[in-house]
Design a protein that fits this description.
Elements lengths: L7 E7 L1 H10 L9 H9 L4 E6 L1 H10 L3 H12 L4 E6 L12 H13 L4 E4 L6 H13 L3 E7 L13 H14 L5 E5 L7 H15 L4 E5 L7 H11 L3 E4 L13 H7 L5 E3 L7 H10 L7 H4 L12 H14 L5 H15 L8 H15 L7 H8 L11 H11 L8 H4 L3 H11 L6 H8 L12 H6 L28 E9 L2 E9 L11 E2 L5 E5 L7 E6 L6 E2 L4 E7 L2 E6 L4 E6 L6 E2 L6 E4 L1
Helix pairs in contact: 1-13, 2-4, 2-11, 5-6, 5-20, 6-7, 7-8, 8-9, 14-15, 15-16, 16-17, 19-20
Amino acid sequence: MLFTDKKKTIRVMFTPFRDGLQSCFGGRVRVKDVLPSMKAAVDAGIRHFEFGGGARYQAPYFYVGESPFDCMDQMRATVGPDVDLQILTRSVSGVTLTSQKLPALQLQAQLMKKHGTTWDRNFDFMNDVQNLARTGQPIIDAGMHHQVCIALMGLPFHSDKVHTAEFYVDVMRRFLATGVHFDSVCLKDASGTTDPRTCYETARGLRELLGPDVLIWQHTHDTASMGIACYMAGVEGGVDGIDLSIRPLASGTVQPDIRAMAHALKGTGYRLDVDPGKLGDVEKLLEEGLSEYEFSPVTTTCDARVVGFPMPGGAIGPNVHMMKEAGILDKYGAVLEEFPEVVRAGGAWTSVTPGSQQYWLQAFNNVLHGRWKKIEAGYGNSVLGYFGRPPIDPDPEVVKIAGEQLGKEPFFGDPLEAAPDSLAAADAALKERNLELTDENRFLVASAAVPGKDMTLNEGIRLLEGRAKISLPLKKNEKPADTSSTAMPAEPFTTTCEVSEGGKTRSFKITIAPPQIENATQTTNTASGGKAVPVYSPFEGKVEVVEIAVKAGQSVKKGQVVAAVEAMKAKHDVKAPCDGLVRSVDTALGSVVAKGIPILTLEA
């Protein structure tokens, strides 16, 4: 039983304004909706918040039409100058989903510091010590508190070699050998799947290794209902600080509620450095600020199945939202069942971003196309070594398939050197469009750049040109129109129109419905006697057209790739259903399409 005669105060890092927003809504929340509750948290005594990085760097400009730097500035102004504000960064990926060169990470650190960050929690999903050392230095140089992470995860299969307490302590031992400065250490379990015993043994082993004065932090999610138990085990093992949230952004896929943790510590000799009894206004203002948003039971409900599909709470929310948008939520269970195989074959890297997204997308591809028939680019690059070395060797057959499909050889060098030059690409795109070449603009474009993706669709460019895609998880009757597309909506909608005649104006309510075309094989006769065959996205829900590979008048063969759409942050080919001539291209690059909306029409 947890107990100490020596009274000890456990520090709290408050997570609703980053991890809470990400885990519940994929980070797709307007900053104005949470600022009042953030101010109330300061008034109640909170002095350490997580406010940026992760999806709360990307989501504001990918889906909300807000600059993440403006969001950070507003949050800093709200809490004042004396509160610690923390971001989450992903080693060689920084705040992106792809690997970056060192100059991009150096610029990232400078900008995060400039816009209010005092702490940077940096993890590597491979637990690659050299990656942690090289990407930690820019954090130090920028003058932020450098919190180095050991990434934890419960394996969905048995292994005595990795994801044990001994394995995690050895990661820290090897990091110490690099000589890189750090200010604190974090045990980060993004999926909430590490068992309490391993949490205890790891914390105790780190305390013995690091001595009594090094600050050790612990992070977990309550997805499998183990959050409180794991924190109790960590505290007993010697951790000094833990991450906590508050409803409606607590438990489920988020961190445990601060009140539950305070209650669990009663009578143990341990206490939190925050009085949860003073946080009532925080909860009230959060509920008011988020009253328009639709909470999904998938993200607000604990799910013990996560021990078999170790996905971070911060990734389950966005993925569920994207699956729902694409009309494929019925495949959720099948994707989860595929997880143990993609984890085993990949090399058991830790399920934190971007590794968690790579696991998810590969499991999704295995369900959609057949196992290993389509290698997701991030997963393939990871098994080939372009993000660092996995904890155990990947399946040789999967490595071979990945190399063949991606046209790459296995890589054993420095991922920072192999990464594309995203800053150069950003500079060229900004100059070409006569957009201002500020550090913020450069990084917004660079951090959204994906190799092979048209810069017209780059989220940084779209924000700066006033064409940001707005996709908020609002309740259905409050959902705004999607201004990113002029295509016919996928569902009937009601609107009003006014008709003026003879000096009189009359108002009518009308309902507009899209054409109910069931599939891409439905045809009609053309004027020339041929058959018009519309070509649709392979998804029933809303997806974005990211490539149009043909022009009107061009001949195509059955099975030829004629376009591509983006679903689940991945590119999916659209193939011609028959031989024919491209009669018309019915959408533009960047359009949002859904069931019943053709991308193009063939004449067969």
